[in-house]
ABC transporter permease (Streptomyces edwardsiae), 215 residues
Amino acid sequence: MNFWEYLGSRHQQLLTDAYQHASVVFQCMVVATLIGVLIGVVTYRSEWAGNLATTTTATLLTIPALAMIGLLIPVVGLGVPPTVIALTLYGLLPIVRNAIVGLRGVDPSLVDAAKGIGMSRVARLARVELPLAWPPILTGIRVSTQMLMGIAAIAAYASGPGLGNLIFRGIASLGSKNALNQVLAGTLGIIILALLFDAAYVLIGRLTISRGIRA
């Protein structure tokens, strides 16, 4: 059976695995974005706190994915829980770092002007600082998503959802007639999903970033 015949005979399962892969990455990115931006907001004013947040999230990223998932299995079991926790933790660094850099890069005169017209601290953050810091934050989200697309495949080690199951099954059955097809289908599926997500972020950037900021 060649690769195209394999795709034709397994297309329903492939679509299901691709949907699960995209879903878990998307959900983890939403959680990582909320947590990462919150950490950035809390720490960006302090050099010490910002460095601590960046160093801590960078340290998490140095833990091998298999080790991270292996450490989580005894605590939360197999399946979705260790996958979600691991992906969320791995997705934090680019978002936290870019949120801090973006917020620190806001022109102080604009913040002072907003303060001068009576805007509260929360209003200045929501209406001035975060919108101006959004381009680097979005870049951090894009980087995190690309990383998580690949890392999510390793979640199959813990019976997690997604295209990684195809890759692991193919590797486990090397020498069989469909082993290479499974690995290739899983790998290409992840690449296609990564490109689709990145295209979506480009569109979001065009819709949410004003021309003046882009320039």
In short: The chain has ten helices and no strands. The mean pLDDT is 90.
